[in-house]
TrEMBL record:
Residues 274-403 form the ATPase AAA-type core domain. Residues 9-18 have a biased composition (Basic and acidic residues). This is ATP-dependent Zn protease. PANTHER family: 26S PROTEASOME REGULATORY SUBUNIT. SUPFAM superfamilies: P-loop containing nucleoside triphosphate hydrolases. One of its GO terms (biological process) is proteolysis.
Length: 408
């Protein structure tokens, strides 16, 4: 006896079913939406005509499945449970039941990063964008390490919701992601969203975007970025830690006294610019590293060390609350704009805009983390005579000291 074709689905449904089976094989389980009377009454009171229309539609589909004349009664009952009819009923069920919990994008801090970060790097260009993306990726990974195992993991794919058993969670790399994954930490009230961006063929790996969403991410970001430093240079650009070979106590007494003044100003001023100058070999660069390691890092500052080319294109990341920018050989960068050398680049204008805050504060972000930043600039130069006079103007440089003692 012929039963006919009970499955009226199309090729799209077949592909979806294959992907669903892949998720189930990877440990995911279908997430059933629970009926909520309060939500149903709210829906009925706010949109009764749409509710009635959808109810009649699904009732009609079930009646059509049961009322076919060319099939036996039990074949018609089986047809009610076919993928086509079941899909219509699932759509109706999704309409009358509240959606699974998800992040609130309107009143939240958000920090996103692609992983793995891929970009071609050459010595002909400073990979500022690449290194800053790596910093963002490292920050999110460290935040996830601090958070530990989430309380909920779900995935939305092809109009279906799945959940991942928490007891099976080990690492995020082991989570099969083909749609959009959501994870939630109840105690911290933080969401993580993972989106599958596609496959990177030249490295043979899938790329994802991780987005942290919470009312306030600043404290976690401060913990995650503790003791981090970024070097942006034409020779080597990387994310690591500050290394200082000489402690502040090994410098001459007058420099130690100046260091105390710098430390006091760091505590009292939201932005501080310090310039030290002197002949080569007087310990200027070593002093900036010592101040960064002994004073700024313990206070939670992220250190950025910029060379000639990086200065011209660097903008402080807005999600970091405390930033220290070290610029060595400033007299070769912020040269007098009346000189021929300074007219061949925009480095002087860029340093001035960094000191003023006009470069990155003139347009405020409407999304992302809105942190009140504290900035410290540590600059060194051999002589102040070649600096543009605007750099030394009151309001830009707060503290100046001349290093006169040979330092090895």
């Amino acid at each position: 006896m012929a039963f006919g074709n009970f499955d009226n689905g199309n090729e799209h449904r077949d592909r979806q079913s294959n992907q669903d089976r892949g998720l189930l094989g990877a440990g995911w389980r279908p997430l059933s939406r629970e009926f909520d009377w309060s939500y149903f009454f709210h829906l009925a009171s706010k949109d009764p005509w749409e509710l009635a229309h959808k109810t009649l539609d699904v009732s009609s589909d079930i009646a059509d499945a049961l009322g076919r004349q060319n099939f036996t009664w039990w074949a018609n009952i089986l047809n009610v449970f076919s993928e086509y009819t079941r899909g219509d009923f699932n759509d109706f069920w999704d309409y009358i039941t509240p959606a699974p919990a998800g992040p609130n994008y309107r009143t939240a801090d958000m920090l996103a990063a692609e992983t793995p970060v891929v970009q071609f790097v050459s010595r002909d260009s400073i990979p500022i964008d690449y290194v800053l993306k790596r910093l963002q990726e490292i920050t999110i990974c460290k935040v996830l390490d601090l958070l530990g195992r989430p309380d909920l993991i779900t995935q939305y794919y092809q109009d279906r919701h799945f959940y991942y058993p928490i007891e099976r969670f080990s690492t995020w790399e082991r989570i099969e992601t083909i749609g959009t994954v959501y994870a939630y930490w109840k105690k911290q009230d933080i969401w993580l969203q993972i989106d599958h961006l596609g496959r990177i063929h030249n490295i043979g790996r899938n790329q994802f975007q991780y987005t942290l969403i919470a009312n306030d991410l600043r404290s976690l970001i401060n913990k995650a970025t503790y003791n981090l430093a970024v070097m942006l240079s034409g020779y080597q650009s990387r994310v690591g830690q500050v290394h200082s070979e000489f402690p502040i106590r090994t410098f001459p007494a007058d420099i130690q006294g100046f260091s105390d003044r710098v430390q006091e100003a760091i505590f009292t001023q939201p932005q501080l610019a310090v310039l030290v100058h002197g002949a080569p070999g007087t310990g200027k660069t070593a002093w900036t590293q010592a101040v960064a390691k002994e004073i700024l890092v313990p206070l939670g500052y992220v250190i950025f060390i910029l060379d000639h080319d990086a200065v011209e294109n660097f903008v402080p990341p807005t999600y970091l609350e405390k930033i220290c920018i070290i610029i060595n050989e400033a007299d070769n960068l912020a040269q007098d704009r009346g000189s021929e050398a300074a007219q061949r680049s925009n480095k002087t204008e860029h340093i001035l805009s960094l000191l003023d805050g006009t470069l990155y504060q003139s347009v405020l972000d409407t999304e992302g983390i809105k942190a009140q930043q504290k900035l410290v600039f540590l600059m060194t130069c051999n002589t102040t005579e070649r600096l543009d006079p605007a750099v030394l103007r009151k309001g830009r440089i707060d503290l100046i000291s001349e290093f006169t003692h040979p330092f090895v």
